[in-house]
Design brief:
The protein has about 180 residues and is an alpha+beta fold. It has a single domain (about 5-15, about 30-160), classed as Protein Transport Mog1p, Chain A (3-Layer(aba) Sandwich), CATH 3.40.1000. The protein has helices at about 5-15, 90-100, 160-175; strands at about 30-35, 35-40, 45-50, 55-60, 75-80, 105-115, 120-130, 135-145, 145-155, 175. A seven-stranded antiparallel β-sheet has the order 3-4-5-9-8-7-6, with helices on both faces. A three-stranded antiparallel β-sheet has the order 1-2-10. The two termini are about 25 Å apart.
Length: about 180
Amino acid sequence: MRIYLCFFSILISLQVSAQQTITKNSDSLAQIKREHYSLSYPRSWAVDTSKMFGMDLFLLSPRVDSLDQFSENLNVFVQDLHGQNYNLSKMGQESENQIKNMVTDVEIIESRLDSTASDLYYSLKYKGRQGKFLLTTEQRYYLKDEIGFALTFTMQNGKEKEYSLASEKIFGSFKLL
């Protein structure tokens, strides 16, 4: 498959270790509106819309202290899929297969089509080793008017409780325009 959603999400997750240390702020949310979607995120997180590595949006949590080696993050990848006959199930299954080939010691926790939300999406959650980090990654894939969207939230294993509320708020705020 020529969708590089999964590959770029994994690649970008590994680029986060050089951030400066910032004290955690309140969890108030800011909103960002892009061409095809909008979402809310914690105000203390850094926002990058430079389209580095093809990402449409990259959100980066502040480091907790000088010992914090990984900044949790969310990225959004948008890809034009016109004429390629994609559906959400195909996007999710192909991404899962890519993950199994790219992530060391991968454990797929969830892989399913979710029709309970207002916007249908494919949910993929997995754990695995990427470089020196053991990470938990949650992904949601959306498709609208033959444009594919991949939201990827990556956190260090063991920090799921600390970041689950942030990931739920960000994922829950995502709206296709």
